[in-house]
Amino acid sequence: MGWVESLQRAINYMEDHLLDDLTMEQIAKEANLSIYHFQRIFTILTDVSVGEYIRRRRLTLAAQELSRTQCKVIDLAHKYGYDTPEAFTKAFRRQHGVTPSEARKHRGKLVSYNRLIIQVNLKGAKPMKYRIVEREGFQVVGIKRQFSMENEENLVGIPKFWDEVNGNGTDELLHQLNNGQIKGVLGICVADHENIQSTQKLDYWIATEYDGEPPDGLSKLEIPTSKWAVFEVVGPMPDAMQKAWKQIFSEWFPSSGYKHANTPELEVYTDEDPFKEDLYSEIWIPVK
């Protein structure tokens, strides 16, 4: 089963169990992917997190039921996963722009998010520049922070981590330390890709390639021997990086014959102005 089919299987599972107490572990298991890998690919391809997709779909169904039945708001709140009518009303208004009571009286317009169907674009209209690199294992040094993937806390925590590193001088130190083949500062997610039953935590590193003992305050991480697909990313952050990831998963992987090797990926950032129109960055993906 290909990864597109795996994702669709997980989406179908979510849809069949929208009224249940879904967990990321259950959903990822349906896709036969690690929690991290499923969450990441889903968000890249759909521009929405798994949790947000479930929330939108539940509120869409709640609005439909509200408009065609006389079900009490408190009963709808509990049915669609909200502890109180107040919490339900707040979420309902955020999505639809009206309260449940106003929706029942057909005041305003409702917002409908339909069931998701994963489609892959094989047109390749925009060329991608990449190279295949085979490297022995190498060492990086930097700082590590652990994030929970439960309730998608990592999606909020990792950008804050970068803000902290950029603000306290650690980013500059890592650029100065770099003495390896990969020039720049790396963003590295280390998760248990193989074990879909693993704990919902990941280690995120901000590091640089460095041969030697790590200076005080920094730790080291060994990157395993791999074959890498190295993609050029040109443009200001974060849009250019996000667009490149989407093109990789929606166009390159389905047509390339390669599969993800399920070891850590690398995002490579230079010390140039992150908002430059011609900023050069890279994405390193282990492949097999």
Automatic annotation (TrEMBL):
A Pfam family the protein falls into: HTH_18
Family matches, as Gene3D superfamilies: Homeodomain-like, Regulatory factor, effector binding domain
Record SUPFAM superfamilies: Homeodomain-like (SSF46689), Probable bacterial effector-binding domain (SSF55136)
Single annotated GO MF: DNA-binding transcription factor activity
Residue intervals of the HTH araC/xylS-type domain: 8-106
InterPro entries assigned to the protein according to its UniProt record, in alphabetical order: AraC_E-bd (IPR010499), Cass2 (IPR029441), Homeodomain-like_sf (IPR009057), HTH_AraC (IPR018060), HTH_AraC-typ_CS (IPR018062), MarA-like (IPR050959), Reg_factor_effector_dom_sf (IPR011256), Tscrpt_reg_AraC-type_HTH (IPR020449)
UniProt KW keywords: DNA-binding, Transcription, Transcription regulation
Protein known as: Transcriptional regulator, AraC family
Upper taxonomic lineage: Bacteria, Bacillati, Bacillota, Bacilli, Bacillales
